[in-house]
Amino acid sequence: MQQSEYNRYKTEIYRIGWRLQYRAKKIKRQENSYDDKLAVPSFTESSDNKIAAEQLISMLSPYERSILQKIYLEGLTEAEVARQLNISQQGVHKWKRKLIQRLSQIANF
């Protein structure tokens, strides 16, 4: 009786762990999926894009820059960034969304 309960609990814990790992990988793939969709531009095109991106990012505060850098350049998940900055994952998500929207508006003017 005890052994069967032990095996049942062990199996359930294994399943929970597997689901957590799967969700974490899924979130990380979603956050970094833009990398897979980029085409390889010419040297001058990539240089122009890099200069434009640096100019846009220089308009952000150091705190805002660090959020985008950690997510997009270092490849961290929102949860990992949240832990480093001592804010909630939802807070990181809102910052990211707000910053991308602001950079998009600036770039389109």
Structure characteristics:
109 residues; mainly alpha
Beta-strand residue percentage: under 5%
Rounded to an integer in angstroms, the radius of gyration calculated over CA atoms is 20 Å
Main sheet makeup: none
Shape: elongated
Number of domains: 2
Class of secondary structure makeup: mainly alpha
Model regions low in confidence, pLDDT < 50 over at least 5 residues? none
Q: Let me know the number of strands.
A: 0
CATH class of the largest domain: Mainly Alpha
CATH superfamily of the largest domain: Winged helix-like DNA-binding domain superfamily/Winged helix DNA-binding domain
Task: Give the end-to-end Cα distance, rounded to a whole number of Å.
Answer: 71 Å
CATH architecture of the largest domain: Orthogonal Bundle
Mean pLDDT across the residues is 81
Organism: Paenibacillus borealis
Protein name: RNA polymerase sigma factor 70 region 4 type 2 domain-containing protein
Domain RNA polymerase sigma factor 70 region 4 type: 53-97
